[in-house]
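Supplementary Methods. Inverse-folding protocol.

Structures were first reduced to a discrete structure-token string of length 186. This string, shown here, constituted the complete conditioning input.
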């Protein structure tokens, strides 16, 4: 049986589609909202889910922000292999992190597909748009926080093409966050 392979774009945004405030603060991730009908995920369930992700891909700015946050909160991606797409020379502070500079289709077909099954692209907006435009991503999981930020970096800002999606699932959480899970139609 052939191994399955998929690339999931995961993003957290405000209701107005903003994924980062201009100051890069993440305080807006914390919500005081409560949705009684929502589900709650235990830390054990979250840990089991994260174990299924066998590689992360991110852009340079997301990586730099993750490094900054790791000083206070720890490295969010654990020991899972992480590929940072960048043309810049970035500091490598973990043995499971590598920098990739080059063709994205080559990255997917020659590096990711042969070695991984469940790849998550976790930022940023430009890299996500490139993966969608090049038809390299299979699905989008958008976690919408119960807040309107009004200003900042948009998730989809001038992607440049129409893209049909198929809604696979919607999950509402007790925190008021809603996760939209879409398959990207190719």
């Amino acid at each position: 049986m052939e191994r399955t392979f998929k690339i999931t774009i995961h993003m957290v945004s405000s209701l107005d589609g903003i994924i980062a405030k201009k100051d890069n603060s993440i305080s807006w991730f914390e919500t005081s909202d409560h949705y009684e009908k929502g589900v709650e995920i235990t830390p054990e369930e979250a840990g089991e889910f994260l174990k299924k992700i066998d590689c992360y891909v991110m852009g340079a700015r997301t990586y730099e922000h993750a490094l900054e946050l790791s000083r206070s909160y720890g490295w969010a991606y654990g020991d899972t292999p992480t590929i940072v797409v960048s043309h810049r020379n970035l500091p490598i502070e973990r043995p499971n992190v590598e920098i990739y500079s080059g063709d994205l289709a080559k990255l997917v077909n020659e590096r990711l597909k042969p070695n991984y099954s469940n790849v998550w692209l976790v930022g940023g907006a430009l890299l996500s748009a490139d993966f969608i435009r090049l038809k390299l991503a299979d699905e989008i999981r958008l976690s919408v926080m119960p807040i309107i930020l009004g200003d900042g970096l948009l998730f989809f800002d001038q992607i440049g093409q129409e893209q049909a999606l198929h809604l696979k699932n919607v999950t509402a959480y007790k925190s008021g966050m809603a996760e939209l899970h879409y398959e990207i139609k190719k």
